[in-house]
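HUMAN: Quick job: go over this next protein and say how the chain folds.
***
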Amino acid sequence: MLNIVIFGGPGSGKGTQSVLIAEKFGLEHLSTGDLLRAEMAAGSELGKVVQSFIAQGNLVPDKWILNILSKTIDHIKDKKGVIFDGFPRTIAQAEALDEILSKRNQKLLLLLDLQVPDEVLQERMLFRSKTSGRTDDNPETIKKRIDVYHQLTAPVIEYYKNKGLYQAIKGNGSVEKIFAEISSCISAHQ
């Protein structure tokens, strides 16, 4: 199985690139953000809890994310692997992902880190807020999301570097140029 994590700050282009990766390499695109937003849109109890965390710019606790993710992975059929978009965000989640995959006799091939300066992340998310209607794309929440990313999520980079699975990708430039670099990197690791 070709299991890949796409990593980067909020607004780094993970979602855009994940769709392209999934299409080219025959992978299932799993966006924890999309899974969580679907729960919120459904108005479930979990969705209400998730909304309270996201609205404040905080990460959703692992127990809810891991449960949703495990169930989703078990229902994937006819794909060559998974592109994990927005997960893992902490060391604990990275370890949990290893365990989830190991129980299914799978492993992670690669972590792609879209590197984008904070100022560019802020600009992208403010622009996105004008078109998406996402309530978590406002200046105060954006700043908090970037701070949370640096405090809690960035250490995941070291975890994957130590496993030899880390690959930095320059996240500035055209979507096509970034995707070409990603494609080349994935092809080299297959």
Q: What stands out?
A: The mean pLDDT is 89. The CA atoms of residues 5 and 36 lie 18 Å apart.
